[in-house]
Amino acid sequence: MLTSKNFSDIVAFTRASAAWRYSSGGILVQESANVPRLGYDPITLAARGLLVEEQRTNEYLNSRTFSSATRNSILPLVDVTATDGPFNGTTVKKAIPDTSNVIHYLGGGGFGDKSTKQMTFYAIVKAAGYNFIRIDLFDSANHGSYFDLAAGTLGTLITNGATMRRGISPLGGGWYLCWVSMDVTSTNPLQPNLWITSADNQVTFAADGSSGVLLGTLQVEQGAFPGSTIVTTGAQVTRVADSAVITDLSKIGWNASGGTLVIEFEQFGTGQIASFDDGTNNNRICFLRSQISENFVQTRFRGAGVDTANLTVVAALNARNKVAMSWGAGQLLLSANGSAAATQALASAIPAVSAFRFGAADGSSKPNAWIRTTRYLPAPTAAADLPGLST
């Protein structure tokens, strides 16, 4: 069983860059290159598990100080010390709209032609007198969403025909991660803007000159969902993908005739969660979620480049799930969160594999998830018993 082994004794972990996570106190902290990130929920402070993500680049320069942002002159930024939340004890900016009846916004400058790409813009913010913000991606038309920082809820969505996604997540102490993502079709330069408003669906207003919003960090990245924080100064910064691989399956008692894999995880994006494979995607036994809109994961049996079996089970995004898969004795079984096992006959041989990893063998897909527990049993499990393992 994987749970009976020390991580460092069996798993080869690499990440050729520093990366950020939430500590057991709910604070954003940075880990050095090649150090695994064991993340915590910033609200409950409960352990989430090993964070494994794809590579991302924050294209927003000076993401904590905003010194290069093109903002209108009536939106000054003042240094304040955060007293709670992910930036507790550090300097953040308070954006304070003045009394003019205008749009009060912080812009990020032109980001060039992003056509055919999925782009995400997010802000970690807190109300400081005004409770509403709007996050916008502008490409000759506005595409964005309002957010209520008092209630922690989504407001009016402005798509102007674009395919968009959005979300808001509490981070503790009144801080929220607010994000929008868009499938970009225009070749016009993309510009991210953050507006401060006093109400939902409001454009201009005359502020009181002292109230505002606290700004922790801003991030612009390619992808359909937000990744972990990447701090920039005068240049873009890339967080390299996490890699966690077991290259010697004898260390977990691998049985080529059949087995059971149980994984507890919390996935916030798409990707292949875990895989037994031969170093390629041609032979594999894996879990994955292929679309951000899906509320399920699927398991795939693939031999000699051909999918020979495939089962699907409900497992919500942005929630903790426990999924158990069994193979062997002519059957593929799958259960999630105690559900009755889905079954499929195995008409072909079990793929010949030589490694286990979180993600895909060719590096093209990562779990984008916290992996809480992983357990391997070197024998198939009966359909009646599998729900007990996924509970």
In CATH, the topology of the largest domain is named: Jelly Rolls
Overall structural domain count:
2
Give the helix level as a range of percent.
Answer: under 10%
Low-confidence stretches: none
Q: Determine and state the CATH class of the largest domain.
A: Mainly Beta
Number of strands: 29
Strand order of the largest sheet: 1-19-28-21-22-23-24
Compute the gyration radius: what is it? 23 Å
Give the overall shape, derived from the CA principal axes.
elongated
Per DSSP, the total helix count is 2
Helix/strand-derived category reads mainly beta
Beta-strand content estimate: over 45%
Architecture of the largest domain, CATH level 2?
Sandwich
N-to-C CA distance: 17 Å
Largest sheet: 7 strands, antiparallel
Residue-averaged pLDDT: 94
Question: Any descriptors?
Answer:
391 residues; mainly beta; Jelly Rolls; 2 domains; seven-stranded antiparallel beta sheet; 2 helices; elongated
Task: Outline the structure in words.
2% of the residues lie in helices and 47% in strands. The protein is mainly beta and 391 residues long. The protein has two domains: 2-54 and 241-389, Sandwich (Jelly Rolls), CATH 2.60.120; 56-238, Galactose-binding domain-like (Jelly Rolls), CATH 2.60.120. It has a seven-stranded antiparallel sheet with strand order 1-19-28-21-22-23-24. A seven-stranded antiparallel sheet has the order 4-5-29-20-25-26-27. The protein has a six-stranded antiparallel sheet with strand order 7-8-17-10-15-14, with no helix packed on it. Strand 26 (331-336) and strand 27 (342-345) form a beta hairpin. The longest helix has 4 residues, at 7-10. The chain starts with 6 loop residues before the first helix and ends with a helix.
